[in-house]
Amino acid sequence: DAGVIQSPRHEVTEMGQEVTLRCKPISGHDYLFWYRQTMMRGLELLIYFNNNVPIDDSGMPEDRFSAKMPNASFSTLKIQPSEPRDSAVYFCASSLSGSYSYEQYFGPGTRLTVT
Amino acid sequence: AQSVTQLGSHVSVSEGALVLLRCNYSSSVPPYLFWYVQYPNQGLQLLLKYTSAATLVKGINGFEAEFKKSETSFHLTKPSAHMSDAAEYFCAVSEGSGNTGKLIFGQGTTLQVKP
Lengths: 115, 115
Prior knowledge:
The structure holds two protein chains of two kinds. By secondary structure, chain A is mostly beta strands. Chain A has strands at 5-7, 10-13, 19-24, 31-38, 42-50, 53-56, 65-71, 74-79, 88-95, 105-106, 110-114. In chain A, the strands form two sheets. In chain A, strands 2, 4, 5, 6, 9, 10 and 11 form a seven-stranded mixed sheet that branches. In chain A, strand 7 and strand 8 (74-79) form a beta hairpin. By secondary structure, chain B is mostly beta strands. Chain B is built from no helices and eleven strands. In chain B, strands 2, 4, 5, 9, 10 and 11 form a six-stranded mixed sheet that branches. A five-stranded antiparallel sheet of chain B has the order 1-3-8-7-6, with no helix packed on it. Chain B starts with a strand and ends with a strand. The mean pLDDT of chain B is 91. Chain A binds chain B through residues 4, 31, 33, 42-43, 45, 48, 50, 55-56, 91, 93, 95, 97, 100-109, and chain B through 32, 34, 36, 42-46, 49, 51, 90, 94, 99-103, 105, 107-108.
């Protein structure tokens, strides 16, 4: 398997622009997680899905952030409008409930810079 | 609720010396515990996991961790540090006894290996 795939790997945008980050989980995994990592706040869970349904979005910082999972093989995290403080590395991870140990597999991340 | 505390945000060792990264957890149910490693500009990679089998768990790259219920600890060790071990290490605990799929991560410990 190719692992968790994220695109783009790097994104530079101007304040106020819309940003869309994409994730393809490992085939067959039924959980998908979006994290944000910054020096100041460390690794933060933003939202996670089970069987394409959002389970917990309490980590989403504000209404400018939204996430969707239209099918089992694709998810997006959108920021509209973007702000400089959104600059971070965004990770997607997936896991399989049948594995019982809940280990998560991480993608390589998207480094977002908002100027 | 589950929580994880990693003692020491930065640890520095000499090449060939013992590596000890500390992790204490809080859980109201028997936990599943994990150590992840993050190399620069990469995603998190699973090092090892404890899932209620053997209390001494061996992982990749010569790392191991021991689950001590009485101390609520899951410290990560490696007998002899290598330069390539320089990275950030995260301890994590699964949330709850049900299959929520969610992991609670510690704040991370940066390991520096000096020549």
